[in-house]
C-alpha cells in the first residue's frame, strides 16, 4: 500500500486525487493532507481518510478545525502555517507527495519534498517557472521519481516513455484556447469575471482558469516544459486544439509524432502519476470516437493573447530570472481581476509593463527567488492598485 501526502487537498487537483484513491480501493493510504482555509471540506476528508497529519493555512482555520473535530478519535495531528506545510511535505509514512498548491506558495514545499527523498507528483507549474534549473538539479541529486500532473506535461512524459534515447525534434503543447478563443480584442475588453471563469472544457481553480483565458497558463507551461524535459524554447510549439482530446505531442528526429489522447478529465494524469510506472483506475468514462467532433488545430494569435509570447520572451531574455517577474506580475494581476479591481484586458497590460520596467538581478538561492518574487509583487501591486 502506497502512502500519499496531498498538498492542496481542498483544491481541484487535491479533490480529484482523492477520487482516484477511492477508485483504487486498498492501493493507497492517506498519510497527510495540507489545505487552505476550507475547514468544512478538510474536516470531511479527515473523517473519511484518517490521515496521520493535516495542516491548514492559518491559526483561525486551525482553531475552527479543532472545534469541529471534538468528537473525532482518529490518529490525526493538526498543524498550521509553514510548520504544518513542511510536516506534510516530509510526512514519515508518505511514499509520494502530490504537489498541488496554487501558485508560488508551492515552491518551497516542493524542495522540502526532495530533501525528504519523497517521490513527487507535481501539479504546481510555478515551481519550474520560478526555479526550473535549481529544481531539476535537486531532482537529479535526490534520485526521486518526479512525475508531472498537468495534463500536457503528463502527455509529453507518457510519449517519451520508452523513447528517451531518441532525438526529440519538437514538443507540441496543445491548448484549448480558453473561453475567448473566438472573441475579438475589442470584445475581450468587455468580458466579465463570470465569463472568464466558465472554461469550455476543464474544471479548474480560479487562478488557472483566468490564466487559461489569457493563455498565460500555456506560457507558464512552455517555461515548465523547457526545464522538465530539457528542451530549448525554440523546440516548443503551442497549438490551439479546442476539442482538448489530444493533450500534447512529441515529434522525434525521424519525423514520427506521438500523441497522448484522453478525455478532458484530470483524473487520468493524476492516476498515472500516482501509479507510475503502472497504470490504474482513473474512474474516467471511455471516449466514444464515433460520436466526437473532428480534431482541429490552429496557431495561437499572440496579438490577442500577448502573454503567451511574453513567456517565450522571458526564456529568451533571462531564463532563470525573467520568468520570476512574469509570474509575480501575473499573480498580482489575476488577484486584482478576481477581486474586481481591474478589467480582464488589463491583466496582460500589467504583466507586460512589469517585464519591461523591472530589472533582473542575480538569484543564487531559493531565498533569493522568494524575496525577488515578493519584491516584484509589491512593486506591481503598489503601482497598479493606486490607479484602479
Structure, described:
With 388 residues, the chain is of the alpha/beta class. The protein has 2 domains: 2-124, NAD(P)-binding Rossmann-like Domain (Rossmann fold); 154-385, RNA polymerase sigma factor, region 2, helix turn helix motif (Rna Polymerase Sigma Factor, Chain: A). 46% of the residues lie in helices and 15% in strands. It is built from 16 helices and 11 strands. It has helices at residues 12-23, 39-49, 59-68, 81-89, 107-115, 126-142, 151-160, 185-188, 193-196, 206-214, 216-228, 267-275, 306-318, 322-338, 346-357, 366-385; strands spanning 2-7, 28-34, 53-56, 77-80, 96-99, 119-122, 146-148, 168-175, 236-240, 246-252, 257-261. A 7-stranded parallel sheet has the order 4-3-2-1-5-6-7, with helices on both faces. The chain has a 4-stranded mixed sheet with strand order 9-8-10-11, covered by helices on one side. Helix 2 (39-49) links the parallel strand 2 and strand 3. Helix 10 (206-214) crosses helix 14 (322-338). The longest helix is centred in the last third of the chain and has 20 residues, at 366-385. The mean pLDDT is 95.
Query: Which stretches are poorly predicted, pLDDT < 50 over at least 5 residues?
Result: none
CATH structural architecture of the largest domain: Orthogonal Bundle
Number of helices: 16
In angstroms, what separates the terminal alpha carbons?
Answer: 53 Å
Q: So what's the overall shape?
A: globular
Q: Briefly note the CATH topology name of the largest domain.
A: Rna Polymerase Sigma Factor, Chain: A
What is the mean pLDDT? 95
Oligomer: single chain
Biggest sheet: strand arrangement: 4-3-2-1-5-6-7
Per CATH, the class of the largest domain reads Mainly Alpha
Roughly how many Å is the radius of gyration?
Answer: 20 Å
Strand portion, in percent? 5-15%
Q: Structural class, from secondary structure content?
A: alpha/beta
Topology, number of strands: 11
Largest sheet: 7 strands, parallel
- The CATH homologous superfamily of the largest domain is called RNA polymerase sigma factor, region 2, helix turn helix motif
Helix content: 40-55%
The ordered H/E elements are: EHEHEHEHEHEHEHEHHHHEEEHHHHH
